[in-house]
Amino acid sequence: MAAVLAMVARGCGGVWRRLRQRCAVRPGSGPFPRGERAVACNARGGMMSAGKSGLTPWIPVVGLEIHAQISSNSKLFSGSQVQFAAPPNSLVSFFDASLPGTLPVLNRRCVEAAVMTGLALNCHINKKSLFDRKHYFYADLPAGYQITQQRVPIAVNGSLSYSLCIDNKMSQMVTKTVRIKQIQLEQDSGKSLHDDARSQTLVDLNRAGVGLMELVMEPDMCCGEEAAAAVRELQLILQTLGSSQAVMAEGQLRVDANVSVHHPGEPYGVRTEVKNINSIRFLAKAVDYEIQRQIEELGNGGTISNETRAFDSKLGCTVPMRDKEGKQDYRFMPEPNLPPLILYDAKSLPANMNHQQVINIDWIRERLPDLPSVKREKLVEQYGILPEHSFTLLVWQQDQNCNSRHSNEDGLPEFFENVVKQTQMKPKKVIGWILNDLLSYLKQHSLTVKESPVSSFLLADLLNLLEKKEISSTAAKQVLAELWKGKGKTPLETVKEQKLELLQDQKELEQICQAVIDGQENEVMAIKAGNQKVLNKLIGLVQKKTQGRSNPVLVKQLLEKKLSE
Ligand SMILES: Nc1ncnc2c1ncn2[C@@H]1O[C@H](COP(=O)(O)OP(=O)(O)OP(=O)(O)O)[C@@H](O)[C@H]1O
Ligand SMILES: [Mg+2]
Ligand SMILES: [Mg+2]
């Protein structure tokens, strides 16, 4: 065990600690009742787990398949509208319902979105990709097959870099990379609505035929935290590109987590697949649960079968759904109604070609927006803020996108930049006001940046007063609290109304300092005996007496002078 514990170094240490605490607190009970276990990271960032005996470490392996709904007005092969929560079966064309004689017509927007996503994820874009039929029987799949890209997908061999904090500390971030095996275009299925009361199942085909990108990642991850961080970054990239709104709560981003464990030097273990996880928090929990369950099972002499499981968010565990397709034959065959999808680049584009009829990969590449990683780098370079602060700015924006459905609106980074443009305060100081003060208000009131009653202009105005030493930072916080009430007053008006101007009268300030010194004999003795920390208490008392209107630097000087007399 000691050897395994020594490996807690990077990445998933927080998970390890939580799991260990759970085991320590509830020995022999809970979801993993037997045996001691530990999960830690090895040097390459992988998580290692000791089984029952504690002698043979386990290496968990995690690979994700992600279905991202393409942001498009119409479906992948039909003109039906795409809309969330429309009345059941109100957005269904004859093709979506698989009426005989109907044919697919490929949606250009969906292809462009997949190319954009592939380029953003450093993929090779195949200039020729193929469509296939994947057969399976289910009530919400009227054709009996799904059109997908099994043999030659549109994009292959990419990578996604993502960062995660060690032990939940923003200051200790590591960056990792997961390989993207492929991105394929495919149709979504309909939805089965189970009516338990009447023991019947109803089918809604609104979602049938909506364009999806399936992103298949290589099994490069090793714990729930890594999987969660990778999906977070992917979500932000998709939203930045506009290729998917990626709102998980609306099923626009669904994750299948493949998990296995094996001993070092041995081949990968049999994987189970936890299907359709629709929240990043649940993803992390499902993966970690599944790792522990498999270790437990194998440690007790059992075996892992290649099965499909679901995550029960109420119980916090995974449960079997059905056996995996080792037994199920999808009977893949080429889709006869769709020719190969041909894309061009600047070199291969035929002369005199009508641009409306072709897709030029280079044209799309040139128009890619700045990706989140580039945005973060620019923020750090341009404004000198810490990398972890740039991270918080973008992650907060992402949370907003997911909650507010305005994924393309200006977010926190833009707010920060606008404040910086309008104030003389240094960006390094401005970021503190945004991340500590503004964010806590927004969080408290569950508001988006757009809904903030304090605009970037107002905040800049306030910070200018502070910069010009017209108010103290304590007073600035009071003004911010007032501005937050949204009464339409300017910071200066608020300062005047509440009499928060900095005390300029040095004589008055000296008198107040003297009064504080006279009333704090013990503290004065402590300071004189060399305990300088106590000075802060006296500064605080002066601030209190002046209702935060004194300049703490000046107060410190005055107190020091008086105490040395
Ligand atoms: N031993 C393993 N442990 C964990 N994950 C694995 C392992 N082997 C493969 N994977 C992951 O399993 C996933 C396989 O996805 P892929 O789409 O290729 O096949 P599939 O799950 O059989 O197909 P589908 O679910 O689309 O019908 C990939 O994300 C891959 O990284
Ligand atoms: Mg797959
Ligand atoms: Mg799968």
From TrEMBL:
Q: How does it assemble?
A: Subunit of the heterotrimeric GatCAB amidotransferase (AdT) complex, composed of A (QRSL1), B (GATB) and C (GATC) subunits.
One of its GO biological process terms is: mitochondrial translation
- Signal peptide span per the entry? none
The organism is Catharus ustulatus (Russet-backed thrush)
The UniProt record lists the EC number as: 6.3.5.-
GO terms for cellular component: glutamyl-tRNA(Gln) amidotransferase complex; mitochondrion
Write out the catalysed reaction: L-aspartyl-tRNA(Asn) + L-glutamine + ATP + H2O = L-asparaginyl-tRNA(Asn) + L-glutamate + ADP + phosphate + 2 H(+); L-glutamyl-tRNA(Gln) + L-glutamine + ATP + H2O = L-glutaminyl-tRNA(Gln) + L-glutamate + ADP + phosphate + H(+)
Keywords in alphabetical order: ATP-binding, Ligase, Mitochondrion, Nucleotide-binding, Protein biosynthesis
Q: Where is the Asn/Gln amidotransferase domain?
A: 414-563
GO molecular-function term, one example from the UniProt record = ATP binding
| Name of protein | Glutamyl-tRNA(Gln) amidotransferase subunit B, mitochondrial
Alphabetized PANTHER family for the sequence = GLUTAMYL-TRNA GLN AMIDOTRANSFERASE SUBUNIT B MITOCHONDRIAL AND PROKARYOTIC PET112-RELATED (PTHR11659), GLUTAMYL-TRNA(GLN) AMIDOTRANSFERASE SUBUNIT B, MITOCHONDRIAL (PTHR11659:SF0)
Q: What is stated as this protein's family in its record?
A: Belongs to the GatB/GatE family. GatB subfamily.
Compartments annotated for it: namely: Mitochondrion
Where is it mostly found? mitochondrion
SUPFAM superfamilies per UniProt: GatB/YqeY motif (SSF89095), Glutamine synthetase/guanido kinase (SSF55931)
Superkingdom, taxonomy of origin: Eukaryota
